[in-house]
Write a structure and sequence with these properties.
Layout (H helix, E strand, L loop, with lengths): L3 H11 L13 E11 L5 H11 L4 E6 L10 E8 L6 H13 L2 E10 L37 H15 L14 H14 L3 H4 L2 H13 L10 H12 L2 E4 L6 H8 L3 E4 L17 H8 L6 H14 L4 H16 L2 E4 L2 E4 L2 H4 L2 H6 L6 E4 L2 H4 L12 E5 L2 H13 L5 E6 L4 E6 L2 H9 L1
Parallel strand pairs: 5-6, 7-10, 9-10
Antiparallel strand pairs: 1-3, 1-4, 2-3, 7-8, 11-12
């Protein structure tokens, strides 16, 4: 378990909606408007649109509600989408003017969308020099990080972090020459966990472990190399691994999942306490996360979390972080009349793996609407776990939660190029969704 101060830093970073992307990328603003103009008066539409031109505001969509030829309606309803936020100076002039001159003007919605990557190469913009919990160990003076006073260990972490910072999209992941001490740490964790998996882990996890031994170097005495692991899961589900120097914010980590990219550390916990780490390490990543990513349904579920994060508001990112925590990190599922673990935080902790299936914690059916609002503890075992029927059902429920979020665009993913295309939802579509 994490120490209090270290845990606070980890929690702050984990739920952070900020981004370490370089370049000062601008947000995208959009406002959707519904207004009415006189049906029969020539030039009525031009007069309604002209104030936007005078304010230097671009109009990206103009539609009208269709009228039958026989209609005798006096007014025609128009839908506009403009590239500005309702709080912008120009909009503060235009909207009141239109409201004073037209029969009806309604702002349906106004959004400021944070920048987000649309291709894997954009992840190269991540400034890994500002990441915590990589080479700069999280420390609580009253209860120090196990490796905080070990200068050789800290130097090792710095070297591994430097290697990750130099990585770019398309490059092979550098192979690590792990020390005998690091191998012994891996073996200690391996021996502590693997005998529990047949009775506590889900069948998808257990079925992939032998395949990782055959194809990706999983064994008791050697740490797997990230490139070998990445090659294998890519052959199974299209997911790849990218090395990272430290702890990412939720936004940056989730954004990568949209491209089926999983950020992973390469360093291992301190040898003095092999069954404890205050931050994610290669044990958590490779034993906890990676085997599940070879399962197609689970891989799809993870990518949907990535889609949900693109351009999401800070509030949505925080809620999505809780959904991720209670599923990918600490999720349970039903199998053969039993409950089994699939979350990485459980699968990489022998203590939590046994605790979660005991009678002590509360078990709730997987519901992202509930999970999104539920805080989680870092410094102790989870008091509550969510149980999924299966991964496809979990994904459907996550999609329902995603559809309920206020996002003014839709996403299209191209699996062959691994790129994202986004299309604005126009005002009439937004109104239609509100009326469902």
């Amino acid at each position: 378990m994490s120490t209090p101060n270290a845990a606070a830093e980890f929690t702050d970073k984990y739920v952070s909606s900020g981004s370490a992307m370089k370049g000062g990328h601008a947000t995208r603003s959009k406002t959707s408007i519904q207004l009415s103009i006189e049906t029969k008066r020539p030039g009525a539409l031009i007069e309604a649109l002209k104030p936007f031109q005078e304010a230097g505001i671009s109009i990206t969509n103009v539609q009208n509600r269709p009228l039958a030829y026989e209609s005798k309606a006096k007014y025609l309803t128009m839908f506009l989408d403009v590239e500005a936020h309702v709080e912008d100076a120009g909009m503060k002039r235009v909207i009141p003017f239109l409201q004073s001159t037209l029969p009806s003007v309604t702002v349906v919605g106004s959004w400021k969308t944070p920048w987000y990557p649309t291709e894997p190469q954009h992840l190269d913009l991540l400034d890994q020099s500002v990441l915590s919990a990589g080479e700069d160990l999280m420390d609580d003076p009253a209860n120090p990080h196990p490796g905080f006073h070990d200068e050789a260990y800290k130097a090792r972490r710095r070297a591994i972090a430097a290697s990750a910072r130099g990585h770019r999209h398309g490059m092979k992941i550098p192979r690590m020459e792990y020390t005998e001490q690091e191998k012994a740490t891996w073996t200690a964790v391996y021996d502590n966990l693997f005998h529990l998996f047949p009775t506590h882990a889900c069948k998808q996890f257990n079925s992939t472990l032998p395949l990782f031994a055959e194809n990706a170097g999983f064994c008791r005495t050697e740490l797997p190399q990230l490139q070998d692991v990445s090659d294998y899961i890519e052959s199974q589900t299209g997911f790849t691994i990218r090395p990272v120097a430290g702890l990412l914010s939720s936004r940056d980590f989730f954004n990568a999942l949209a491209f089926r990219i999983f950020f992973s550390t390469q360093y291992i916990r301190h040898h003095s306490q092999p069954l404890y780490t205050p931050e994610p390490d290669i044990v958590h990543e490779i034993i906890g996360h990676v085997p599940m990513m070879a399962d197609p349904d689970f891989a799809d579920f993870c990518q949907k979390i990535g889609f949900a994060s693109l351009g999401a508001s800070d509030e949505v990112i925080e809620e999505l972080g809780r959904c991720y925590w209670y599923s990918v990190e600490f999720g349970l599922c039903k199998q053969g009349g039993h409950v089994r673990a699939y979350g990485s935080g459980i699968l990489s902790s022998a203590g939590e793996l046994q605790y979660c299936l005991s009678k002590e914690p509360q078990l709730l059916p997987w519901d992202p609407f509930v999970a999104a609002k539920m805080p989680f503890p870092i410094t102790k075992y989870q008091p509550t776990y969510f149980v999924a029927e299966d991964f496809r059902d979990a994904a459907k429920k996550l999609e329902a939660w995603m559809d309920a979020q206020d996002r003014p665009f839709s996403i299209e993913y191209h699996p062959y190029t691994k790129t994202i295309r986004t299309f604005p939802k126009n005002t009439s579509e937004i109104l239609g969704n509100l009326q469902k």
